[in-house]
Amino acid sequence: MKLYQNIVVLIVIFAFCGDVGNLINSVWTGQEMRSQNSGLLLPGAHAIWGHVAKLVAKTLVRSVSRTGKKITKNKRPRIKGTHEDEQSRKQKDQDRANENTCEPGWLKYKGSCYFFSKNSNTWINAERECRQKSSNLVKIESASENIWIKRQAEVTHDQRWIGAREVHGQWEWVSDLSPLTFTSWAVNEPNNAKENCAHIHKVISYNWNDIKCSKRFNFICEKSTVSLKERIK
C-alpha cells in the first residue's frame, strides 16, 4: 500500500512540473522527460525517472507475485457440497441399515415377513419347518392382513396351512397360544368334525377351513421384520 502511495505522490509532483502523460509515456518507453511547453529536459528528470521506474517495477513484481500466490492457492477449486454430500450418503446408509427388512425369499407386509413354502407337509411338521426359520405358522390378526395373504395365495393357486388350531374345543394361534380375535371362516366352518387345524383353500375363496392336521399342504410362515444391522450380527 505504501508503494502505491509513493507513486501517487510522484505523479502529483510531476503534474505540477510538467506533463503527466509524458511521465507515464516515459515509464513505458524509457524516454527522457521534457516539458510540454519548452521541450527542455526537466531538472532531475533522470533521477526521478530512475526512482519511479524502480518503484513501478517493485510494485508490479509484488502485485504479480501476490496474484500468482492467489492463483496457486485457488488452482484446485473446492467443490461445494462435497462434505455435505458425504454426510448425506452416510446418513442414508445408516438409515438403510436400521430399516426393518425381510430376508431373501420372504415377503414384507407392514411389520412382518412371510414365507410361502414351495413344499407340502402336515400341520405339525409345517410348524416345525417354520420354527427352523425362526418363525411360526402365520397368525392372521386383521382383515387387511387376511386380504393380503389371499392375494399372495392366489398367485400359486394352492391350499396352505395357517397357524390356527383347536385345543380342547378352543381355537388358538400356535405362535403365542392366544385366542382368535379375527376370523375369516368359510360358510358353516369350522364344523368340528375332528378337524383341528386350519387352512385356506381356493375353492372357498381362500377363506378358512378346519381340516385334519395329518393332511399335507403348503404353508405360510410369519416372523417380525428385523433391521439389516441385526441380521448381520
UniProtKB/TrEMBL annotation:
Residues 81-98 have a biased composition (Basic and acidic residues). Residues 70-100 are annotated as: Disordered. Keywords: Disulfide bond, Membrane, Transmembrane, Transmembrane helix. The chain crosses the membrane at residues 7-28. It holds the Pfam family Lectin_C. Residues 109-222 form the C-type lectin domain. Residues 70-80 have a biased composition (Basic residues). This is C-type lectin domain-containing protein. It comes from Mytilus edulis.
